[in-house]
């Protein structure tokens, strides 16, 4: 079952989050890089605001110069797309949740991933040899040795009677007495 989470998200908070992601140093004019003298030009696509730069006269918004420039998607949809890509959600599932075209969403996903790869820090590890757990993203620090109880391992005479799921079974090789006493069977109690 797909859950339409977009309808429950607050567009203004999503806009603020996207602004922080796309412009971590703060919003500035994409042409002259000025942060002062940015006036509101129009508000025709709430909560996205178009700004007018007093320095160079450029009109822009938070998506200008980014992969989302010219998009008609809402801020909540864009945030869900970014979250889905980061979590490894399939494009088909994202398309169903957003009720949009899978091929177009796949194109957008490829563009986002290509841009992300350009900014990826591909530096070599500081060690000449890397352990496998160091290669995983969520690998923790090396831990202490496993804590052992204060007693030694049980000897053979101290071990239990065997696996609990086996129950009381006859030893291997012993025949079932009931099977040998049935009429017509070839056991010891059958007549010849």
Provide structural commentary:
This protein is of the alpha+beta class. Among the domains are: 26-65, no CATH class; 70-118. It is 29% helix and 8% strand. The protein is built from 5 helices and 3 strands. It has a 3-stranded antiparallel sheet with strand order 1-2-3, with no helix packed on it. α1 packs across α2 and α3 crosses α4 (102-119). The chain is elongated, with a radius of gyration of 34 Å. The protein starts with 10 loop residues before the first helix and ends in an 11-residue tail after the last helix.
Widest sheet: strand order? 1-2-3
Largest sheet entry: 3 strands, antiparallel
* Uncertain residue ranges: 187-192
Order of helices and strands: HEEEHHHH
User: What is the tally of helical segments?
Assistant: 5
Rough outline? elongated
Secondary structure class reads alpha+beta
Helix content: 25-40%
Q: What is the radius of gyration computed over CA atoms, rounded to a whole number of angstroms?
A: 34 Å
Distance between the termini: 68 Å
Number of strands: 3
Strand content: 5-15%
Question: Which structural traits does this protein have?
Answer:
3-stranded antiparallel beta sheet, 29% helix, disordered C terminus, 192 residues, alpha+beta, 5 helices
């Amino acid at each position: 079952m797909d859950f339409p989470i977009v309808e429950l998200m607050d567009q203004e908070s999503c806009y603020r989050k996207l602004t922080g992601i796309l412009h971590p140093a703060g919003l500035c004019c994409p042409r002259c890089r000025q942060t002062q003298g940015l006036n509101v030009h129009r508000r025709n696509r709430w909560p996205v605001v178009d700004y007018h730069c007093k320095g160079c006269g450029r009109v822009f918004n938070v998506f200008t110069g980014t992969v989302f420039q010219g998009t008609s998607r809402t801020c909540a949809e864009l945030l869900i797309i970014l979250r889905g890509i980061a979590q490894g959600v399939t494009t088909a599932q994202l398309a169903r949740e957003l009720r949009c075209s899978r091929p177009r969403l796949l194109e957008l996903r490829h563009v986002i991933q290509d841009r992300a790869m350009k900014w990826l820090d591909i530096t070599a590890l500081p060690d000449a040899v890397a352990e496998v757990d160091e290669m995983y993203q969520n690998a923790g620090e090396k831990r202490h040795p496993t804590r052992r109880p204060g007693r030694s391992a049980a000897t053979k005479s101290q071990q239990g009677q065997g696996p609990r799921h086996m129950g009381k079974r006859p030893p291997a090789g012993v025949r079932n007495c009931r099977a040998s006493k049935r009429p017509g069977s070839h056991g010891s109690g059958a007549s010849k």
